[in-house]
Write a structure and sequence with these properties.
disordered N terminus, alpha/beta, 330 residues, 14 helices, nine-stranded mixed β-sheet, binds (2R,3R)-2,3,4-trihydroxybutanoic acid
Length: 330
């Protein structure tokens, strides 16, 4: 084959391929990459499935959602950065690393702020929650809907924890969140911030003694394989949020954007329902798998121990948001 012939046939091939691509993209669905850190049996996956089903149905196949569970696209901080630069389209994340991007959300990470699920959901579904979603727009993120992770509890491999004194000296993995870190520091623990995808191995290898997460996450991650003790401290409510990339969403028509809003709302509703189910059934499942569960925790001494976190928060961010949450009718 001569060089000239080879070149010509190559350019013919490229022209053909370009045509084929053009024809395909006229009909092909636009792929939406959705990421989260939890397993495909988790409450986030229930939410991801609802997002996918709703968006694909409403858009009549114009969009196709591809789910990437288990931190396949990175930890929550990395995925949020991905939304900002457009390498990820939709993320379901806790507020763990979100305050690093949208400091207004730190208020939600204060320990013992909400007394129960009803109150937390009511605040997030009302004007405060809406204002916080809107704030995300000022930081290259689109806040689509408040979803849920759950009330967080402490697990560890060293001892049964009943009082804050039992927490002293424990190396506890926290999320990359300075309000959470301040709370654990105040209890006398050694807070070790770490992205979630690294956590299981860190527990297995003894890099940290413990971690804290809702029943939902403890079940979905099978933490019983690496942690013996669970104490139902319920020390902080952990919201989740369905976030979108402005690079994708700002380019959509109003109708298309509406489909994403509805898909996010369906996702949040399905996730909350699954959280409620696991709150009813999860502890029993953890016991069956060998965890020792302290259910009867006196919260008052814990609440007192973490008080310095409030001072640290208000010194830096003022008390306006906190006062609003406390004054809400919820
Ligand atoms: O959002 O990092 C955490 O502990 C979170 O609770 C988990 O990734 C689910």
């Amino acid at each position: 084959m001569t060089a000239t012939f080879a070149r010509r046939s190559l350019s013919t091939a490229i022209a053909g391929a370009t045509l084929a691509l053009g024809a395909a993209s006229a009909q092909a669905a636009q792929t939406i990459n959705l990421g989260h850190t939890l397993s495909d049996s988790s409450h986030y996956s229930v939410g991801a499935d609802a997002f996918k089903e709703t968006l694909e149905r409403l858009s009549d196949g114009e969009f196709e959602v591809v789910e990437h569970p288990s931190g396949a696209l990175g930890g929550e901080r990395a995925m949020i950065e991905g939304l900002q630069i457009g390498t990820v389209d939709v993320v379901i994340t806790s507020t763990g690393p979100l305050g690093n991007f949208v400091p207004e959300t730190y208020v939600l990470d204060l320990p013992f702020l909400f007394k129960d699920y009803d109150q937390a959901r009511c605040v997030l579904d009302g004007p405060i929650g809406q204002d916080l979603l809107n704030k995300m727009g000022e930081h290259d993120l689109v806040g689509l809907a408040w979803s849920e992770n759950g009330f967080r509890h402490l697990t560890n491999s060293k001892r049964a924890v009943e009082t804050p004194a039992d927490v002293e000296g424990l190396k506890v993995r926290t999320m990359e969140n300075k309000v959470h870190m301040a709370a654990f520091e105040a209890m006398g623990a050694h807070p070790t911030p770490m992205a979630f995808p690294e956590l299981f191995t860190a527990l297995q290898q003894g890099t940290v003694d413990g971690q804290e997460n809702p029943i939902t996450v403890i079940v979905a991650t099978k933490f019983w394989e690496v942690q013996d003790n669970l104490s139902l401290t319920g020390h902080v409510y952990s919201p989740a949020v369905v976030l979108g990339s402005p690079i994708l969403l700002d380019g959509l028509s109003e109708e298309e954007r509406g489909w994403f809003d509805q898909a996010a709302q369906a996702s949040a509703a399905a996730t909350r329902e699954e959280v409620s189910r696991l709150e009813r059934e999860g502890v029993e499942l953890l016991r069956e798998n060998g965890m020792t569960v302290e259910t009867d925790i006196d919260k008052a001494p814990f609440q007192e121990a973490v008080e310095p976190a409030y001072q640290i928060y208000t010194d830096q961010y003022g008390s306006e948001m906190l006062d609003r949450v406390r004054a809400s009718d919820c």
